[in-house]
């Protein structure tokens, strides 16, 4: 561009172009060019960047995971309000900090080790149990990452694992610390309490003016609106539907079986003793004694060992302590002492007690499984074949109806679908794809051509928006009664809060007891036993449990119920700790060792960041999400 201007600056065309550029910059400005430079970098630690592509990959993966766990759609707004974006960014920053430190230590996996790791990953293999580049590319495409990013992430993951093992492999929580955590986590409390509620009586006492109603309505219009809804059409390439079009020749199934015979075989296993000695002379002497009396127990007794000390139970050749021991064990007969062979604790004798022969599954036993796997792969190929045909026909201007008819495909139409997915009943796709479709149709417009979606199973869906019903605010006159009830409910809640605070102060100041308050309100005192720190339910909310465990014995507490507008007022009557047992102590220790590792890792990352040059740009998340929303999809 600069060469072109330089050559033509003296000519009339070059001069006109320069004038146009000057006018354009004067109208729109040039600030954005420089302001958005490097905006794809969210953090920089040493020579490592946290870029927007890797962040979005992790962020989307977390949203899909949470949506699957909760079995409902998690929107971007909800995820960001809960701090998911900051959490994902924080984790990436810690990882990049470790990797930047690892770079200084020359921790970098070789290309050869990465290639071997790739070839040995089952997810990337085809029906013939071979690494398949098409399968590999499909999985990368489904996850929205490039090949370069995949290999970069794999290298970093291996390096992180090496650092993690070096730091924490021998980390152990002391018994005293474990007991302290046990007492904290297994403390039970008994409470007596009353529940006070708002009353539906005397609603007429509230004199709410029309002006108050209008003010509340205008300040909370979003509460008095209809759902935004969409009508849309889908062409779905689903494996569950297209698999019926695939015919499987039995000769192909036999070929797959014969090519992968080792996959259908359980290797021979042996149970044997590995008996260590201090020297070859001692082992040879023991071998001579055995040949004379054939008593293996005597040899173990002479060494001060039991069978449990030396037992190697049901091991394959590869699972032995080393190759020499396995070779000796797998070449000897049952109840025969052989050796010596070099073991991990010195010269050792081997005594085989049991042989489990190799088991081979015949063709008929595995035929159905092989056929299913092969059919699944061929169905996936069929989906990609149709995918390319549909894309070509869309480019030629074919309608969805014409495409479906030409390719004998099913077309589905969905009406009045809201942002929660109501009325969207396509059950043959996974939840993450369903969520992506819902999110997309609420960010797209009629007539806008959208890229197809692909889920983790390889199903592909094409979308067309047919109709948009935007959110509508109901007129004041239509919701006037609802507005009035909302105001009354809020007033009642405020009164209940003041009353409960007064009761709490009365108990604390010995003005009234819980029994006296219950009698005055004509309600029963309830009892709840064995409350622990995780006893959340419709009565005891998380905040209520926190209040209970902050309160001393025989002292009062106040908290909101788990569901509804009622308030609990109660007394702590008993505090106890459940009896310890070995199994629970082990479980708690393992759980808290992991928590301790994470905490130490966070502290380590902070310290390393002080040594490395570090810059963080969390404010760029807002710009990133604004850009995503403008584009309408990830």
Secondary-structure topology with pairs:
Layout: H1 2-8, H2 12-28, H3 31-35, E1 41-45, E2 48-51, H4 52-70, H5 76-81, H6 84-104, H7 111-119, H8 133-142, H9 147-168, H10 175-185, E3 187-196, H11 210-219, E4 229-237, H12 239-242, H13 250-259, E5 265-266, E6 269-276, H14 280-293, H15 296-302, H16 307-310, E7 311-315, H17 323-329, E8 337-343, E9 346-356, E10 359-360, H18 363-395, H19 400-406, E11 411-417, H20 431-441, E12 453-454, E13 460-469, H21 476-508, H22 514-521, E14 526-531, H23 542-550, E15 556-560, E16 567-577, H24 582-611, E17 614-616, H25 620-631
Antiparallel strand pairs: 1-2, 1-17, 3-14, 3-16, 4-11, 4-13, 5-10, 6-7, 6-9, 8-9, 12-13, 15-16
Helix pairs in contact: 1-2, 4-6, 6-9, 6-24, 10-24, 11-21, 13-18
How would you portray this structure in words?
It is a single chain. This protein has 634 residues and is α+β, with helices and mostly antiparallel strands. The protein has five domains: 2-35, no CATH class; 44-170 and 596-631, Triger factor/SurA peptide-binding fold (Orthogonal Bundle); 187-225 and 476-577, no CATH class; 229-250 and 364-469; 268-357, Chitinase A, domain 3. Helices cover 51% and strands 17% of the residues. The chain has 25 helices and 17 strands. The strands form five sheets. Strands 14-3-16-15 form a four-stranded antiparallel sheet. Strand 8 (337-343) and strand 9 form a beta hairpin. Helix 13 crosses helix 18 (363-395). The model is unreliable at 1-15 and 17-38 (pLDDT under 50).
């Amino acid at each position: 561009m600069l060469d072109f201007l330089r050559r033509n600056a003296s000519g009339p065309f070059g001069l006109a172009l320069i004038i146009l550029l000057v006018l354009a910059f004067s109208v729109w400005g040039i600030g954005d060019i420089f302001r958005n430079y490097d905006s794809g970098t969210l953090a920089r630690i040493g020579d490592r960047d946290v870029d927007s592509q890797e962040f979005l990959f992790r962020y989307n993966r977390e949203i899909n995971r949470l949506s699957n766990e909760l079995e409902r759609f998690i929107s971007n707004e909800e995820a960001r309000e809960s701090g998911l974006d900051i959490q994902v960014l924080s984790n990436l920053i810690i990882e990049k900090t470790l990797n930047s430190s690892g770079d200084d230590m020359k921790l970098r996996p070789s290309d050869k080790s990465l290639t071997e790791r790739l070839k040995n990953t089952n997810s990337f293999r085809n029906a013939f149990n071979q690494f398949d580049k098409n399968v590999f590319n499909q999985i990368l495409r489904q996850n929205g990452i490039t090949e370069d990013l995949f290999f970069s992430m794999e290298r970093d993951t291996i390096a992180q694992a090496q650092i993690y093992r070096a730091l924490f492999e021998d980390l152990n929580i002391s018994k005293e610390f474990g007991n302290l955590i046990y007492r904290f986590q297994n403390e039970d409390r008994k409470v007596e309490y009353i529940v006070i509620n708002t009353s539906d009586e005397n609603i007429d006492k509230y004199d709410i003016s029309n002006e108050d109603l209008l003010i509340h309505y205008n300040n909370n219009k979003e509460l008095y609106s209809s759902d935004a809804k969409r009508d849309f059409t889908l062409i779905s390439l689903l494996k569950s539907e297209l698999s019926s079009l695939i015919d499987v020749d039995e000769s192909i199934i036999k070929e797959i079986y014969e090519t992968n015979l080792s996959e259908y075989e359980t290797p021979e296993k042996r149970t044997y003793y590995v008996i260590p000695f201090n020297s070859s002379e001692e082992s040879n002497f023991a071998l001579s004694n055995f040949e004379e009396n054939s008593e293996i127990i005597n040899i173990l007794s002479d060494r001060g060992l039991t069978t449990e000390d030396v037992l190697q139970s049901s091991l394959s050749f590869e699972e032995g302590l080393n190759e020499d021991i396995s070779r000796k064990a797998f070449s000897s007969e049952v109840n025969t002492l052989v050796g010596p062979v070099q073991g991990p604790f010195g010269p050792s004798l081997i005594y085989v007690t049991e042989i489990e022969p190799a088991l081979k599954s015949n063709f008929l036993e595995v035929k159905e499984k092989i056929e299913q796997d092969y059919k699944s792969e061929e169905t996936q190929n069929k989906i990609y074949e149709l995918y390319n045909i549909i894309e070509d026909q869309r480019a030629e201007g074919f309608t969805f109806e014409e495409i479906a008819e030409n390719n004998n495909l099913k077309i589905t139409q969905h009406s009045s679908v809201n942002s929660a997915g109501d009325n969207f009943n396509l059950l043959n796709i996974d939840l993450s794809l369903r969520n992506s479709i819902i999110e997309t149709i609420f960010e797209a417009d009629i007539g806008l051509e959208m890229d197809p979606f692909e889920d983790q199973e390889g199903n592909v869906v094409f979308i067309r928006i047919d109709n948009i019903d935007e959110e509508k605010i109901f007129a004041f006159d239509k919701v006037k009664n609802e507005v009035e009830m909302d105001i009354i409910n809020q007033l009642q809640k405020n009164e209940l809060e003041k009353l409960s605070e007064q009761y709490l102060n009365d108990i604390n100041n010995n003005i009234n007891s819980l029994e006296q308050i219950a009698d005055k309100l004509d309600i029963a005192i309830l009892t709840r036993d064995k409350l622990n720190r995780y006893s959340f339910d419709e009565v005891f909310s998380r905040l209520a449990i926190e209040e209970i465990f902050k309160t001393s014995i025989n002292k009062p507490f106040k908290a909101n119920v788990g569901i509804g507008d009622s308030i609990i007022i109660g007394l702590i009557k008993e505090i106890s700790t459940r009896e310890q047992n070995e199994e629970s102590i082990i479980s708690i220790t393992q759980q808290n060792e992991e928590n301790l590792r994470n905490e130490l890792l966070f502290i380590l990352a902070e310290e390393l960041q002080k040594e490395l040059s570090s810059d963080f740009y969390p404010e760029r998340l807002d710009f990133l999400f604004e850009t995503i929303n403008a584009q309408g999809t990830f």
